[in-house]
């Protein structure tokens, strides 16, 4: 048996593993990625790509971000979620989603330099994987993780080359389990989980058919189909999802988890497609079918010693709200810079403990949110009269009753409107996507209490430089008047410090303290005749410190610390803060 040595071994090349590999390679950390299959995602599962994820791709480089947009369906075509009886049948209502509503679009534009888009997993994975390999990742496909053992100085992992059947070991400083919802790494590491797997049954039917005539005039990614039977299992509704406009689709249809798993052959797939599209003679080119279960489970600890889990390995939930791949990539953004800092000797190993402290609450939050989104279909079914009988004809009659000119029908219409509006928590939850605030030793308090959310924290993003929160986005301008997001001036694997006129002493302090820690801290003095100016005043309005104060930002864009004004001894202050943040 032979042995390979690397710094970080990553198991899994899904969105989590490929993002982690791309980030580590960008930061110059040696890593090896293994995947049990010969290639990447073979079905377009995840697709809604939110602003925070695009900020990670943007951090990987303009080329990576631009390639994502090149392959994605853009935000204008995404968001008019159409609830209907079938694509040819009556429309019940629309929910402006993913920033389509002008107010939501404005809030999103104000919050981020990035754009929402729909990028199927079959495009996202190759992009991240290619970036990783081009920058230094060694990738071995058809290679299966078997087991691991932790030693004093690292992890020894047993793998099998599936082509030759030969087993070999990988000796690494750290092991990352990004091996999906059935994670063996998480199991072997003994991570504690809460919740339940397999709460509802679901099937995917992936097909090609030109449906332009039914949809091109009302563009959306999601067409929820409200028919009798749609409430059984699955994600709380029947769904036709656009994969490519308007000729590639994925149907999600539920089954009763207490019944045997259905066989979805060509005939059954065609029958369901015809029923949901509402075209009895529809011909489809079937690309694939699969069955899967809705899960409701999250790890309460995402690491054990030198082993870390991320993505679905740590949080398992339905696709509602499109949070899976997004959260997986964001897990990677949180852990990768910490691994790099520890491996490069800039941080103590205790920094790695902040991974669980910061990300486990988010795992719980998104698993809960996604499952709640399924439950929140109940008022809509109730208003439509779908849940009151097992008799299809009765349900159909209840649904049609809304078109009468009676008081009861008016009440029904109001209930339907309210129930649809409530789906915003699933379809346009800007706050769920962006409001992550970390509380750990890697974010040092400035003594101020955490700002309270002034509006619904799930629906609305609220910017703050409170330590632990994501750095607010504002455009600042270089000497030629070109705009740069504050997020672009931060990140890229480095700490950044923002100050203004009167805060020049931070520049010198950051250089000296950075040198002590072996770090380069990017310092930005923002003000008139400085490398960046705040012509619109937007940065001054969101930074919550004075010109002479500073905001210190971690490589993952989260605020490490801030000072409202210049302190008496900036060098000592920065040293104290970095010692804390980096567990040095
Ligand atoms: C229908 C559907 C729609 C979805 N829509 C969205 C959406 O719009 N937005 C969103 O964010 N999410 C969505 N998701 C969820 C998303 O697909 C997952 O959350 C995401 O794929 C998780 O990424 P991951 O990298 O953690 O795991 P995975 O993508 O599952 O990748 C796991 C990797 O580990 C490898 N692996 C597993 N075991 C081993 C082993 N023993 N040895 C070696 N390799 C191994 C696999 O080969 C694979 O490469 C959707 C899911 C479904 C089913």
Automatic annotation (TrEMBL):
Any one GO molecular-function label of the UniProt entry: FAD binding
Official protein name in the record: 2,4-dichlorophenol 6-monooxygenase
Pfam families named in the record: FAD_binding_3, Rng_hyd_C
Keywords: FAD, Flavoprotein, Monooxygenase, Oxidoreductase
InterPro entries: FAD-bd, FAD/NAD-bd_sf, RIFMO-like
FAD-binding domain residues: 6-370
Keyword Flavoprotein part of the UniProt annotation: yes
């Amino acid at each position: 048996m032979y042995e390979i040595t690397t710094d970080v071994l990553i198991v899994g090349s899904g969105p989590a593993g490929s993002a982690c590999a791309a980030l580590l390679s960008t930061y110059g950390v040696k890593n090896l990625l293994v995947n049990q299959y010969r290639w990447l995602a073979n079905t377009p599962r995840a697709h809604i790509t939110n602003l925070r994820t695009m900020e990670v791709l943007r951090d990987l480089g303009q080329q990576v971000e631009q390639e994502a947009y090149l392959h994605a369906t853009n935000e204008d075509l995404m968001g008019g979620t159409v609830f209907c009886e079938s694509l040819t049948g009556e429309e019940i209502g629309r929910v402006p989603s993913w920033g389509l509503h002008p107010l939501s679009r404005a809030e999103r534009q104000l919050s981020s330099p990035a754009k929402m888009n729909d990028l199927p997993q079959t495009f996202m994975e190759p992009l991240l994987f290619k970036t990783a390999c081009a920058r230094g990742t060694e990738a071995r496909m058809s290679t299966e993780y078997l087991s691991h053992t932790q030693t004093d100085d690292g992890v020894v992992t047993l793998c099998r080359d599936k082509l030759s059947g030969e087993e070999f070991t990988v000796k690494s400083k750290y092991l990352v389990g990004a091996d999906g919802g059935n994670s063996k790494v998480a199991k072997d590491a003994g991570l504690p989980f809460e919740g339940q797997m397999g709460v509802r049954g679901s099937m995917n039917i992936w097909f090609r058919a030109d449906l332009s005539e039914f949809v091109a005039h009302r563009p959306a990614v999601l067409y929820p189909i409200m028919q009798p039977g749609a409430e059984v299992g699955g994600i709380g509704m029947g769904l036709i999802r656009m994969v490519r406009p308007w000729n590639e689709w994925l149907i999600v249809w539920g089954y009763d988890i207490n019944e045997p798993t259905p066989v979805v052959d060509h005939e059954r797939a065609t029958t369901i497609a015809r029923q949901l599209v509402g075209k009895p003679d529809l011909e489809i080119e079937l690309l694939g079918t699969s069955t899967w279960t809705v899960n409701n489970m999250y790890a309460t600890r995402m690491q054990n010693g030198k082993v870390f889990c991320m993505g679905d390995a740590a949080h398992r939930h339905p696709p509602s709200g499109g949070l899976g791949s997004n959260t997986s990539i964001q897990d990677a953004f949180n852990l990768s810079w910490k691994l790099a800092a520890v491996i490069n000797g800039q941080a103590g190993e205790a920094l790695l403990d902040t991974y669980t402290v910061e990300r486990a609450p988010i795992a719980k939050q998104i698993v809960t949110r996604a499952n709640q989104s399924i439950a929140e279909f109940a008022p809509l079914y109730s208003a439509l009269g779908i849940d009151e009988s097992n008799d299809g004809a009765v349900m159909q009659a209840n649904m049609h009753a809304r078109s009468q000119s009676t008081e009861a029908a008016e009440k029904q219409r109001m209930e339907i409107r309210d129930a649809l509006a409530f789906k915003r928590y699933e379809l346009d939850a800007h706050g769920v996507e962006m409001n992550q605030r970390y509380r750990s030793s890697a974010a040092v308090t400035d003594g101020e209490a955490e700002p309270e959310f002034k509006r619904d924290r799930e629906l609305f993003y609220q910017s703050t430089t409170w330590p632990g929160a994501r750095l607010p986005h504002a455009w600042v301008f270089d000497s030629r008047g070109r705009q740069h997001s504050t997020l672009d001036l931060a990140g890229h694997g480095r700490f950044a410090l923002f100050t203004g006129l009167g805060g020049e002493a931070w520049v010198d302090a950051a250089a000296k303290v950075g040198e002590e820690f072996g770090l380069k801290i990017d310092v930005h003095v923002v003000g008139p005749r400085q490398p960046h100016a705040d012509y619109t005043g937007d940065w001054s309005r969101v930074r919550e410190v004075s010109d002479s104060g500073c905001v210190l930002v971690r490589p993952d864009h989260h605020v490490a610390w801030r000072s409202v004004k210049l302190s008496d001894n900036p060098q000592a202050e920065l040293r104290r803060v970095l010692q804390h943040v980096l567990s040095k």
